[in-house]
Design a protein that fits this description.
heterodimer, A: mainly alpha, B: mainly alpha, 0% strand
């Protein structure tokens, strides 16, 4: 186990290097000098020289690359080509909303998915099983942007329960400390802002969560069926334990491990979903930042956003793997 | 509760007849009972496929013709799905959109399938440093969430229909490559492969006549799943404005256009979106049925 863990940890910096390099070179294949595409948008001409110097665009690509890697090692992500703002400031604004969004989406998909899976196994009724199965596949089949629009039609336009866009009511005043809305508003006791934030969060988070709910439900079902057919469950039953205890305390508990691994992988899908969903809800997170940067050809921001999101995915999966080892002694032995 | 694998040595029940002597009607009804969702999905997808291929025959109007007099008309007998903000017939655009979506998704699938298959076979069969190199490369591609990778590639190549297809194709390569490699690793160690090798069969013969045929079932299941994801990703990129040019009939693009009109004319976004969801759903139903049928463990549970 120690060796495996060590290997995973040593692999991490290599992945970070590879992901950053791939992103760097992918954005240098673009024909022409990237500054050309934004020249018209920049009114302050001194900005152009600054950006050219910043990007070292007069230098050969390998010099640019060495410089980029050096800056990255120092945590310097450079400045936005279109606005000139330091990218670290942009990230401070945009990372927390996306973390909130994916976190809530993850809670939704995990709880709903496991509940649906358990119900379909525990009731032992073919009709219930079939309904859960069809609902799960339907959830998996709905593209993020379509779910988002569907939710807007139903809950914003028809029922008027939730707003269609943004992170919080623009008219509300609130303090930014960590820029995590939940933490900030609980600290400052601003319940009005907290409520508004939650109402803005619920639809996009549901839109992202629904798709992976289907995956979780399906996996929970098959993992539990497998556990229920195993010897220790028969033993538990023959000891006279109630069906409820056997299902929840024995079968579900062991089925949780594959679910954990799945959710680690699903986190990538959630991040991808966030990019798309943020576009629909005009939600000011990393996805919106990335798309706006692509559309305005702000390649320094595209580069930073892609690297940050990919790294989040890599780190989460590493944590999931470590957690899986901690939880399951079988993996430790292997 | 349920036996996972039936005892292979147990004698067959007397009543079970060889499959060919069962009447066709009975076979079909048995198929229907067991795989009703897959059958529904298969029929629906076939219809979508036929209608898309023969779009000019099925579409009541030209998808590009503007009719500013009848803008944003709701569904009616003349325009079953209504018209959009430029008076174009939504049904006709949905039908032509099927062409854009399906051709793109199949092209991306073919690309990732061909490249992923080659990489997987070489890595699994040859092993050694080549295996290591390819798999680490795949690991790196998998370090990106796949939608993000596709977006990065589209940004790199420039927006456009072909580039979106290439982006999705590349993003899906590692999934096929890994699957193929894992299957090859199992098959290479089978006795019949060892037997073929001891008879002096060449690598090419072993790969094409002994390994490849056995890879088809799991690849088929994976391919349907990837087709569903490909359709969803393709339309998503088109929805975001990274793919087809404005005005091109495409389900994602049509939903994006309709998004601005949700309050006044929800039908403009609704029908292409519905068609998209039903198509992805039908592919997933087919995939689910295939999985049940080809995975013996699930097959025995199904009853």
């Amino acid at each position: 186990m120690g060796v495996y863990l060590l290997r995973r940890l040593l692999w991490l910096p290599i992945v970070i290097w590879a992901v950053s390099s791939l992103t760097f070179f992918a954005l240098r294949i673009i024909p022409g000098n990237p500054i050309e595409s934004v020249r018209d948008q920049i009114t302050d001409k001194s900005q152009i020289a600054r950006i050219e110097a910043e990007w070292g665009l007069d230098q050969p690509v390998y010099v640019q690359y060495v410089r980029f890697m050096g800056d990255l090692l120092h945590g310097d992500l450079g400045i936005s080509m279109s606005s000139g703002a330091p990218i670290s400031v942009l990230l401070f604004e945009r990372i927390p909303p996306t973390v909130e969004l994916t976190f809530v989406a993850m809670i939704i998909s995990t709880t709903l998915g496991i509940a649906a899976g358990v119900v379909s196994v525990a009731t032992r009724r073919r009709s219930v099983d079939n309904v859960v199965r069809i609902v799960a596949i339907t959830g998996m089949s709905m593209p993020y942007f379509w779910v988002a629009i569907f939710l807007i039609i139903v809950f914003s336009i028809l029922l008027k329960w939730a707003p269609t866009s943004g992170r919080i009511d623009a008219s509300l005043k609130y303090t930014v400390i960590t820029n995590f809305m939940f933490i900030d508003q609980v600290i400052t006791g601003n319940w009005l802002a907290l409520g508004s934030w939650l109402r803005h969060l619920v639809l996009p988070a549901t839109a992202i969560g629904i798709t992976s709910t289907g995956f979780v439900a399906r996996l929970t079902r098959s993992a539990m069926l497998e556990e229920i057919g195993s010897d220790y469950v028969r033993t538990a039953r023959s000891k006279g334990l109630s069906e409820r205890t056997v299902t929840l305390r024995h079968a579900l508990r062991n089925a949780l491990l594959p679910i954990l691994t799945l959710q680690g992988l699903q986190f990538g899908a959630l991040l991808g979903g966030a990019v798309i969903t943020e576009a629909v809800f005009a939600y000011p997170g990393m996805g919106r930042l990335l798309l706006d940067a692509i559309l305005s050809r702000d390649y320094s921001v595209v580069q930073a956003a892609v690297i940050v999101v990919a790294l989040a995915y890599v780190v989460v999966n590493l944590l999931v793997d470590i957690l899986a080892i901690a939880v399951d002694p079988r993996i430790r032995v292997n | 509760m349920v036996p996972i694998v039936k005892d292979a040595s147990a004698p067959l029940p007397v009543k079970q007849l060889p499959i060919n002597s069962i009447p066709l009607v009975k076979r079909l009804s048995r198929l229907w009972r067991k795989y009703s969702l897959a059958v529904v999905g298969g029929v629906f997808f076939t219809i979508v496929l036929i209608v898309s291929v023969f779009a000019p025959t099925f579409a009541p109007y030209d998808p590009m013709t503007l009719d500013l007099k009848s803008r944003l008309a709701g569904p009616s007998a003349a325009h079953v799905f209504g018209t959009d903000n430029l008076g174009r017939d939504v049904l006709s655009r949905v039908i032509y959109g099927g062409r854009t979506v399906l051709s793109g998704a199949f092209a991306a699938l073919a690309m990732s399938f061909a490249i992923g298959l080659s990489i997987g076979i070489i890595a699994g069969y040859k092993g050694g440093w080549l295996d290591n190199l390819f798999m680490r490369l795949m690991d790196i591609l998998l370090s990106f969430p796949s939608v993000l990778l596709a977006i990065l590639i589209v940004t790199s190549l420039g927006a456009g229909q072909t580039n979106v297809v290439i982006a999705i194709g590349i993003a899906q390569i590692p999934i096929f490559a890994r699957l193929v490699r894992s299957i090859v690793l199992i098959l290479v160690n089978q006795e019949y492969v060892a037997a073929a090798r001891s008879l002096g069969a060449r690598d090419r013969t072993i790969i094409f006549s002994h390994i490849f045929p056995n890879m088809i079932p799991p690849m088929l299941v994976q391919a349907t799943a990837m087709l569903a994801i490909g359709i969803a990703t393709l339309t998503a990129l088109n929805f975001l404005g990274l793919g087809v040019e404005t005005g091109t009939p495409d389900w994602g693009m049509m939903v994006a256009d309709g998004q601005k009109l949700l309050f006044d004319a929800p039908h403009v976004a609704f029908f292409p979106g519905l068609c998209l969801v039903l198509t992805v759903l039908s592919v997933n139903f087919i995939g689910d049925g295939l999985r049940d049928h080809l995975d013996p463990r699930l097959r025995n549970q199904a009853g």
